[in-house]
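TASK: fixed-backbone design
INPUT:
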């Protein structure tokens, strides 16, 4: 393990480079210089390449030597070329605002709609150049809640996720879904049943009149008539305790308690749903479920090389 590292934004200065030049003339190694400056050895290695110049050391003999002035000159040129000026034109502004209102993230807008870095879009939002504020971000930052742990006497309602075949875990084929519910409030109220294909990230959303095992099974029975579902990975909520009544018990796997990352694809999609159904808002309807399902399946994803789940499913 290295003893030193170069913190983000802490670039070498001309003073650092003059010290490097002097120490190299004294015969110090790159690693020794890294230790003296508190930098990573690779930083010094890169710096040496940047500042090499061919000089005559005696008649008829030339050597490549490190020179601080040359290194500083190359550094300044590289810094200038690395920053491409981006103008906020009326057309760019209108495009960004349009897709922000359609619940697109700055990353997807940057990748699919405008030739502007996502960091620049965030900067424009923060500075008010787009007429938007931090409050318009899709996920306002919140404080961390205490971590929950399962009871030592906990018993899963079915087969553990540990028994799930490797082919499902590795996402080698479509048809293996993660399932969950997205609620509105703590009170008994309508909610959404969500299923996400682990491989294609294709999403299925159904409106539930209540968060009960009976409502889940009725909706899932209808889904099974439309879609080929090979396996289901669920959490240990009571609403999923009776899945085996309508689906093969051998193909149902239950994640560990409070381990939402074991159903990561579904959880990420639930997060997308929150763009339209924030917690505490009682607006769940069948029409909204259909609209959100269409939106998610036509929304580009980084994991799919910025293609949409619909493009992946129907291109094959």
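OUTPUT:
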């Amino acid at each position: 393990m290295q003893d030193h590292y170069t913190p983000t934004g802490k670039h070498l200065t001309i003073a650092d480079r003059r010290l490097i030049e002097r120490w190299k003339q004294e015969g110090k190694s790159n690693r020794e210089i890294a230790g003296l400056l508190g930098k990573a050895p690779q930083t010094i290695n890169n710096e040496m390449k940047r500042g090499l110049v061919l000089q005559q050391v005696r008649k008829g003999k030339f050597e490549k030597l490190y020179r601080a002035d040359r290194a500083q000159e190359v550094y300044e040129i590289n810094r200038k070329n690395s920053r491409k000026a981006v103008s906020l034109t009326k057309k760019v502004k209108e495009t960004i605002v349009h897709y922000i209102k359609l619940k697109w993230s700055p990353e997807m807008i940057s990748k699919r709609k405008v030739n502007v870095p996502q960091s620049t879009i965030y900067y424009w939002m923060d500075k008010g150049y787009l007429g938007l504020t931090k409050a318009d971000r899709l996920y306002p930052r919140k404080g961390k809640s205490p971590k929950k742990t399962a009871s030592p006497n906990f018993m899963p309602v079915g087969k553990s996720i540990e028994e799930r075949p490797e082919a499902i875990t590795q996402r080698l084929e479509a048809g293996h879904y993660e399932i969950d519910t997205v609620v509105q409030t703590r009170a008994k109220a309508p909610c959404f049943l969500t299923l996400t294909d682990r491989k294609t990230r294709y999403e299925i959303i159904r409106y539930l009149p209540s968060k009960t095992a009976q409502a889940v099974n009725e909706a899932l029975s209808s889904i099974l008539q439309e879609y080929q579902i090979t396996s289901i990975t669920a959490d240990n909520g009571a609403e999923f305790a009776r899945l085996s009544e309508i689906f093969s018990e051998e193909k149902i796997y239950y994640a560990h308690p409070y381990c939402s990352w074991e159903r990561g694809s579904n959880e990420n999609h639930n997060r997308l749903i929150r763009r339209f159904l924030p917690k505490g808002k009682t607006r769940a309807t069948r029409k909204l479920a259909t609209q959100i399902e269409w939106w998610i399946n036509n929304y580009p994803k980084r994991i799919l090389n910025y293609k949409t789940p619909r493009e992946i499913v129907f291109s094959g």
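COMMENT: The beta strands are 52-58, 61-66, 159-160, 176-182, 191-197, 203-208, 231-234, 252-254.
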